[in-house]
Amino acid sequence: MMQTKIFFLIFLGCSIFITANAAKSLLLNKPECTQKRLREVDRNFMKLIVIGENGRKFPESYDELPKFCKDTDRLIDSMLKFINECYSPDEQRIFKIYFFSAKRVVKTLCMKKRTKKLQNLLETTPCVNTIVDKIDCVDKITNQTLQLIPYNIGATKINYACCYYVDALKCAEEQLSVPCMTNKGKEILMDMIRSIAGDMVNFACGDYTESTDRCDHIAPLPKNKLDKSYKFTKFRSIVLAQIGLIESIGGFAAQP
Questions:
Q1: Percent of the chain that is helix, strand, coil (3-state, to 5)
Q2: CA distance linking residue 153 with residue 226, whole number of Å
Q3: Helix/strand/coil for 138
Q4: Are 147 and 222 in contact (CB under 8 A)?
Q5: Does the predicted model carry a pTM greater than 0.90?
Q6: How far apart (Å, rounded) are the C-alpha atoms in residues 88 and 98?
């Protein structure tokens, strides 16, 4: 299996589609690996990543933290159980990078010590919760991912995917610019979003990042490379779309 760089986008949520090839990754020969359970994972992942109309509300006080953190652990444990039972090691690695990245992000909220950063974040969450289900940045990026998957352009897809991530950051920064949001709160939230994919973006994206202008000059996708025979199945979580994207390139290079 060809090794290729991969990138990961998380923390945002919307309705997406995955390729039929990605659906076939599921080990359906095992009785416990059903489409019903897959759809449950799909829904739970959207709750885990918080932002989006299918996500959750942020905790707004210290008293709300234990329930939020307990719910986060429950979501991760149930999804990892399904993934370990029903996917090959390659797909498991991708899922686990997503889940552990999400857990790292919410760790800011779930730490026992009451730090200044946590206090600043909790002061921001009432404002965030007024817009959290209206943020449509993932809508845009997952639609772009959907359009990218059927193109026969090999690992060049990574450059486009990285530019979609750059666009998502710009979108998030714009949509977090609401009157109730403080500059400090916005800075904390943007740092959380960037931290989710930071390591993988540094590894996979090269010069195609928000700190350069490469994405401003990337060529349009070549229409003559589009495979119009691709079929899609509707799901909500971006992690399944990313598996479809990587499989469409031809392999994995994720490490646990």
A1: 60, 5, 35
A2: 9
A3: helix
A4: no
A5: no
A6: 16
Strand, helix or coil for residue 67: helix
| Beta-bridge mates of residue 10 | none
Instruction: Name the 3-class secondary structure at 109.
Output: helix
* DSSP annotation of 59: P
Encode burial over 42-80: b for 16+ CB neighbours within 10 A, e otherwise: bebbbbbbbbbbbbbebbbeeeebeebbeebeebbeebb
Residues 125-165: tens digit of each pLDDT:
999 999 888 888 877 777 787 788 899 999 899 899 889 88
C-beta of residue 55 within 8 angstroms of C-beta of residue 238 = no
Kindly report the length of the chain: 256
Cα–Cα distance measured from residue 6 to residue 158, given in angstroms and rounded to the nearest whole number: 7
Phi, psi of 9 (to 5 degrees): -125, 135
**What is the tens place of the pLDDT at every residue in 82-105?**
888 888 887 787 777 767 776 777
What radius of gyration, in Å, describes the C-alpha atoms of the chain?
A: 18
From the list 72, 90, 1, 87, the residue with the least C-alpha distance to 37 is 87
Which uninterrupted H or E stretch holds 75? helix 65-86
Tokens of 56: 């959750």
Task: Give CA–CA dist 118/124, Å, rounded.
Answer: 10
Enter the tokens of residue 204. Answer: 């996979």
Q: Which residue has the tokens 């809508």?
A: 139
Where are the extended beta strands (E) located within 12-105? 16-19
**140 within 8 A of 227, measured Cβ to Cβ:** no
> What phi and psi values does residue 19 have, to the nearest 5 degrees?
-75, 155
